[in-house]
Amino acid sequence: PGPAAAGRFPTEGEFLDQLDSRIRVVVRKRPMNRKEMDRKEMDIAECCNWDQVQINEPKVKVDLTKYTEHHQFMFDQVFDEETNNQEVYFYTARPLVSGIFSGGHATCFAYGQTGAGKTFTMMGRDGIYVLAAKDIFTMLTRPEYQHLQAEVAFFEIYGGKLFDLLNKRKRLWAREDAKGTVCIAGLREEVVADCDRLMRIIDYGLTSRSVGATGVNADSSRSHAILQITLRAAGDPSRRIHGRISFIDLAGSERAADTMDTNRQTRMEGAEINKSLLALKECIRALDKKSGHTPFRGSKLTMVLKDSFVGNAQTVMIANISPNSLSCENTLNTLRYADRVKEIQSRKVPGRGRPNMDKANKLDQLPPMGEPQEPR
Ligand code: ADP
Ligand code: MG
Q1: Predicted ipTM of the assembly
Q2: Among the bound ligands, the one closest to the CA of 255
Q3: What is the reported pLDDT for 259?
Q4: Please, what is the Cα angle at 147 between 142 and 150, to 5 degrees?
Q5: Has 11 been labeled as part of a binding site?
Q6: Residue 32 alpha carbon to ligand 1 centre in Å
Q7: 164-202 burial by CB neighbour count: b if 16+ within 10 A, else e?
Q8: pTM for the complete prediction?
């Protein structure tokens, strides 16, 4: 790895400033892997600062002289290859957790090319959903929240169809009622109270991910996996949602380009992924602009996540990138997509105000990071 970037993380004040925003877009670079190093590939992704990344694209002129084209991007935050999941969690999903207790919807997306680290970030052994769940279970032990329970659902969108990963990959349908509420009929939701149980449920779900009805093992890079943790009052017959956090491990962004593939099935899947990633971008942009119209009907993905795009919702998108030169084009595409999800207003104003104490107090309500968690 190269020299550590100047400021790897924002100061407390800089971080708290960002939390005013309903949508945050961050980038995470994974380390070079053994194969890439053995092939003597170059690391072309340079994390210049806690909010800046530069791609050094190797190019060749017609006369065969080599040169480098530099592409700079600015995001709410950029995590270099040394950053671990705890740190990513601290700056991304953790601030959302207190929000769902005060009754809101929070969504955390992992976007990027296959192999860039989406699953590692989200669903890995110490992935951010586990860290979020730990905080949620701890919060639930507090007197003011003891009437609530956490219910988990895990499903997949593959080729525009919904499949329940906790129920033998049963096909499901999303319905929108007269009031505009979208629900997935028959989706299995399991009450969970500790991380061991949650992890067993996820492991079980992952075994049935993308195994087609024909029994042929399809490629999980072509599906979106959605894990939802919903807070509800225990025993409430109306099953009203108190708060919900969704973690989405999106299909590989490079699959959106498969629309020209010679194989009909691949081409159709690519078109579906392309459609959903475009609709997702539009919905998040609408949330950012607080515009009245959210085009959530644009795809199955945005339709089932409708509540994430309206009202009191908070969203974080983690754009995962690979560092190696062979991935350059996909990396640039990922960064351009992430850039358009949220146009960062010129934030480089010198002498910012004081940290927003309201937000700081909210975060303080969460259990401190690394505190041992009592089983309930
Ligand atoms: P994706 O889900 O985007 O296709 P994965 O999460 O499966 O990618 O990551 C591809 C490989 O890279 C995996 O072997 C994973 O363990 C490894 N990897 C990804 N991100 C990191 C990271 N930040 N640090 C170490 N290894 C990583
Ligand atoms: Mg994956």
Answers
A1: 0.99
A2: 1
A3: 82
A4: 85
A5: no
A6: 10
A7: bbbbebeebeeeeeeeeebbbeebbbeebeebeebbebb
A8: 0.91
